[in-house]
Amino acid sequence: MQSLQIEYSKEVARELGKIAVYLPGEDVAVGDILTFPFGKRGLLNKTAPLGSFQRITSLKNLRIGQPKVRQSESPDSYRFTSKKAVQFNFGTKAQADLANNALPKANGELQIKLSAEGAICFFALNCTKTSLEDITALENEINAKGKKMLWEDTYLVTSVTTAQKALIIQSKSNESELTLAGEVQGLQSSSLMNLHANAGIHIKKQKGNMFIKDWSDDVTVFMDLMKFEKETFGTKNNHFSTEASDQDAIRLHPVSISELIEDINIL
């Protein structure tokens, strides 16, 4: 089986249409320049931004301006579980509360069973996105100042999405189990409308081998990327060295989720 981190990135791409930050909560910022050493290669020997990443440098370190950023105006929340591999069982008190129309406030217990290696349970609440504003101006400045400071198969982080609160689980075995306690009732809603960032949730018991990002504050969950490409006389070349001629131009090519999913389906 392929590495669990690659499987995590693939499932986030398919289910949520996003490029995953792995590990969730990893320190990454707009303007960072990354490589993905474990990204699988698809057609034409391309790398894919899957799994964990390594930070090579940043626009700030290269002294390429101070790009303007913007913040998303309204937060979004995300929830998904691996199909046919995640089961929820609420304790007796939680089940009783769920029968009421009023927003449940009493504490309860939630048992989460993951029945496949790599199965994921993902909750990210009140996510805000920080994005670069003017890519064209940035591209022009890179060509003016930084053409010789680029690497093969590198990506520029153009946005980072951070959850105000997140709980993310991935099973590392065929059977694993987690029991949460506290204000867990809101986790059952597909829209997360009954879950609040200030809810008190904690891990009461766990069984089996799993990765857990506990109910945590300010968790980086997604990012948008653009890949560095060299263009010479109108011909794009993804494999360029640190030697760039005056006739070369550096272009930033957006990573398309649809293209990424196509590559994933072929791998």
Question: How does this model look, in words?
Answer:
The protein is of the alpha+beta class. The protein contains four helices and 14 strands. The chain has helices at residues 4-16, 92-98, 135-145, 257-266, and strands spanning 19-20, 32-35, 54-58, 69-71, 76-81, 86-90, 108-114, 120-132, 155-171, 176-182, 201-207, 210-232, 235-237, 248-254. The strands form two sheets. Strands 1, 2, 3, 4, 5, 8, 9, 12, 13 and 14 form a ten-stranded antiparallel β-sheet that branches. Strands 6-7-10-11 form a four-stranded antiparallel β-sheet. A hairpin with a 2-residue loop joins strand 12 (210-232) and strand 13 (235-237). The radius of gyration is 21 Å and the shape is globular. The two termini are 12 Å apart. The relative contact order is 0.20.
Please supply descriptive tags for the structure shown above.
about 15% helix, about 270 residues, about 40% strand, alpha+beta, 14 strands, 4 helices
Write the layout of secondary structure elements.
Elements: H1 4-16, E1 19-20, E2 32-35, E3 54-58, E4 69-71, E5 76-81, E6 86-90, H2 92-98, E7 108-114, E8 120-132, H3 135-145, E9 155-171, E10 176-182, E11 201-207, E12 210-232, E13 235-237, E14 248-254, H4 257-266
Antiparallel strand pairs: 1-12, 2-3, 2-9, 4-8, 5-8, 6-7, 7-10, 8-9, 9-12, 10-11, 12-13, 12-14
